[in-house]
Every structure is written in C-alpha cells, then in structure tokens.
Amino acid sequence: MTDSGRASRWTLRYIALAYLTGLLLLPIGVALIKTFDDGIGEVFTQITKPDAIHAFKMTMLTVIIAVPLNTVFGVACAHLLVRSNIRLKWLIGAVVDMPFAVSPVVIGLALILVYGTGGWFGADLAEVGIQVIFSTPGIVMAVIFVSLPFVAREVIPVLQEIGTDQEAAAETLGASAWQTFRKITLPAIRWGVSYGIVLTTARSLGEFGAVTVVSGNITGETQTLPLYVSQQFELFNSVGAYSASLILAILALGTLLAMNLMRRGED
C-alpha cells in the first residue's frame, strides 16, 4: 500500500471515531455525569417515585407484548417474501417497511382516525367496553406499528443466503413442513432473529412520537418512560429526567449484553 493510501485509510478511521465520539459517546457520557450531580440517593428517590414506577411498568408491558408478536410476524413475513412465489412481493415488502418511512406522529394520528371515538371502529369498540385510544391498547398498537419491520428485515437476507438445499433435502427424507422449519430453518436464522429482537426491543423501549399522540400522556395512567422523561425535563426536574433516561439506557444495554453472552455461549 502506498503512503497516500495508508494516510487515507487512517484519515477515514479518525473521522469515524470522531463522529462516533461527538454524536454518541460524549452526549451519553455527559448525561451519565449529570444524572449523579446530586448523589446516588437523589437518583434512587427519583426512580422510585410512584409515577416513575408506573411509567416503567407501562413501558415493560408494551415491550413484553410487542416484541413476541413482532418476532412471530417478522419470521413469518420473511418466510413469505423469500420462500413463497406469491405475487406482489414488492408491494408487501414496501408495506412492511412503511414504519421506516412514515413519521411516528403520523402513525399515531392514523390510529386515532381508525380507533378513536370518532374513527371507523372507535364507537363500536366503545359500545363493548373497549377503549383503544388514550389507553393501554392504543399504546401497545403504536409500539407494535413502529417496531414491526426489524425482525423481518434482519431475517430476510439470512434466508436468502442459506438457500433451500437443506430444506429440500429434509422434505425429500419425509420431514413435515413444521419439522423442516424447526430443525433446519430456525437454527440457521437464529442470529438474524436475535438481532431483530434486540432492535425491536430497543425501538419499543424508546418510542415517543406515536405513543405521545395515542396515549394522551396522562401521568400515572398512560405514561411510558420516554414520556415521563420528557415531562420531567419540561418541569425543570433535570435529575428526574436524567435518572429515568438512565433506566432506559440500562435496559437497552442489558438487551445487547444478553444477546452477546448468548452468542459467546453458542460459539
């Protein structure tokens, strides 16, 4: 490699590191320092407030519901798009990617138009005692919507790469479709599914825009942790906002750590 080529390579590396430091590591580091400005006791006081605990429970509830549903959907959708001969695959793929392109606020407004009291199904659901908007079902639906594509988009390239030879061999030996999927396909795509679950979890934990619209942001009732953080910041309770943000960061990092530990164990 020439001197100019080596210099270009190191320049690109320094640019990448500076970009990463300035936009990610530095802000997160400063936020962590600000969190403990008044001591760890104040942080504990802030995160054990009833409203903060309720926001934490609401966030975890949405994650517990949204992630498994989107995982099953993502695997099924990826299998449909890669293994089937169905027409209009491009259209289905575009629909799956819609949450990437559409603003979460628009998604929230669309849910209100369909499931709000003046929407298509809102009045009928209200008659049978089901309130979607400004309630937990609406929050869960918004989170499912915005985190829908991640598992599918991680699994699709893996399915394309592994091909169909092993699946065809299993079917030739008499394996059923379910046995082929469980014994051949699922082990081959497990890390694609794992990455998709991690991304879905992170997206579900941090969703703000759509949830703001459909939840009503009612303290102690329909407030998730991101909404709680925003509220505390607007109330000039910076320690409360940073403390709740710390919980969100720990949850996200814990998800990444768990996946990496599983992967090391598998290796």
Outline the structure in words.
By secondary structure, the chain is mainly alpha-helical. Helix content is 80%, strand content 0%. Helix 1 packs across helix 15 (238-266). The chain is globular.
Number of helices: 15
User: Could you state the order of secondary-structure elements as H and E?
Assistant: HHHHHHHHHHHHHHH
Q: Sketch the major β-sheet.
A: none
Portion of residues in beta strands equals: under 5%
- Calculate the mean pLDDT score and round it: 89
End-to-end separation: 34 Å
What Rg, in angstroms, do the CA atoms define? 22 Å
Runs in which pLDDT lies below 50 for 5 or more consecutive residues are: none
- By DSSP, the count of extended strands is 0
Quaternary organisation: single chain
The best one-word shape is globular
Q: What is the share of helical residues?
A: over 70%
Structural class: mainly alpha
In short:
With 267 residues, this protein is mostly helical.
Task: Please name the defining characteristics of this protein.
267 residues; mainly alpha; globular
